[in-house]
């Protein structure tokens, strides 16, 4: 559908973003987050709460200059030697499964760049128009379709130019990184400016365990994903700074490993 393709192409104009995430994420349960990011250099700051196994909070995570910084009320300041934050390098956010390194401190589905994730529906073969809706005061048109890895590969191979091909390559990588089980159902809300205002992703997921000499790799049910991302401010100034060095403990110096948050 042309409108969805235009929204995917319009994503190239997004260089910074403030966004909100709500929904249910495997192992993290009900989740709420607000975040800001910019693409050059790739930088992100997020405040998040969750209810599941890895939940808790509120807590804050920042990716700045190749390092991740984490702060949370549940972090034992004694473990951090009196500091409020801990840091780790080398950390990367917003790429694919192989390139990302968040030390397991983010849900896998939140490690991807939401601008790239919003373009996945362009690879669907069954997109349909649902109707018009107002999202945060913005008139939008609502579309829905299903996305598969096979469809993303076909879209990659058929991409007409370098920019479109790279966008599809990134989409396929992030689809794989989320460990979606087969088919992703995706809703997309597009404004009159041909920019995405909101998207929703729903799918079953898989997980793995084992992979050692004593325990062969086993693929298991990872639970349902139902996540909505709303774009709040697009291409507005975003400033994300590392916390004060005198209030930050380096993970490499902590003998107890990654603190639980």
Any overview of this molecule?
By secondary structure, the chain is mostly beta strands. 15% of the residues lie in helices and 43% in strands. It has one domain (2-253): Clam (outer membrane lipoprotein receptor (LolB), chain A). The protein contains four helices and twelve strands. A twelve-stranded mixed beta sheet has the order 7-8-9-10-11-1-2-3-4-5-6-12.
Q: Which regions contain 5 or more consecutive residues with pLDDT less than 50?
A: none
Q: Determine the structural class based on helices, strands and strand pairing.
A: mainly beta
CATH class: Mainly Beta
Q: How much helical structure, as a percent, in the residues? A: 10-25%
**What's the helix-strand series?**
HEEEEEEHEEHHEEEE
Domains (count)? 1
**Into which percentage range does the β-strand content fall?**
35-45%
Total strand segments: 12
CATH topology annotation: outer membrane lipoprotein receptor (LolB), chain A
The average pLDDT is 84
The rounded distance between the terminal residues' Cα atoms is 43 Å
Major β-sheet annotation: 12 strands, mixed
How many helices? 4
Rough shape? globular
Could you tell me the radius of gyration in angstroms? 19 Å
CATH architecture: Clam
User: Order of strands side by side in the largest beta sheet?
Assistant: 7-8-9-10-11-1-2-3-4-5-6-12
Secondary-structure map:
Blueprint: H1 2-10, E1 16-25, E2 29-39, E3 42-50, E4 56-64, E5 67-72, E6 85-89, H2 114-117, E7 128-135, E8 138-148, H3 149-158, H4 162-177, E9 183-191, E10 196-209, E11 218-234, E12 248-250
Parallel strand pairs: 6-12
Antiparallel strand pairs: 1-2, 1-11, 2-3, 3-4, 4-5, 5-6, 7-8, 8-9, 9-10, 10-11
Helix pairs in contact: 3-4
């Amino acid at each position: 559908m042309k409108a969805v393709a235009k929204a995917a192409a319009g994503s190239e104009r997004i260089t910074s973003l403030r966004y909100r995430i709500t929904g249910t994420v495997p192992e993290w349960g009900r989740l709420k987050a607000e975040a800001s990011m910019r693409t050059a250099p790739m930088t992100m700051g997020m405040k998040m709460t969750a209810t599941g196994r890895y939940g808790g909070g509120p807590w804050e995570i920042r990716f700045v200059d190749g390092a991740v910084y984490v702060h949370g009320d549940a972090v034992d300041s004694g473990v951090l030697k009196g500091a409020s934050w801990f840091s780790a390098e080398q950390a990367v956010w917003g790429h694919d499964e192989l390139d990302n390194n968040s030390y397991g401190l983010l849900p896998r589905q939140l490690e991807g760049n939401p601008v790239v994730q919003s373009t996945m529906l362009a690879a669907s073969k069954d997109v349909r128009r649902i109707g018009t809706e107002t999202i945060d005061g913005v008139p939008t048109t609502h579309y829905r379709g299903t996305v598969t890895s096979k469809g993303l590969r076909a879209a990659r191979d058929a991409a007409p130019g370098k920019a479109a091909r790279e966008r599809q390559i990134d989409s396929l990588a992030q689809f794989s990184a989320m460990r979606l089980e087969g088919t992703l159902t995706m809703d997309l809300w597009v404004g009159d400016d041909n920019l995405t205002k909101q998207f929703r992703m729903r799918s079953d997921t898989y997980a793995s365990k084992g992979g050692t000499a004593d325990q062969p790799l086993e693929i298991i049910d990872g639970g349902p994903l139902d996540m909505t991302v709303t774009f709040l401010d697009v291409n507005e100034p975003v400033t994300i700074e590392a916390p004060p060095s005198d209030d930050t403990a380096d993970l490499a110096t902590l003998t107890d490993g990654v603190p639980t948050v």
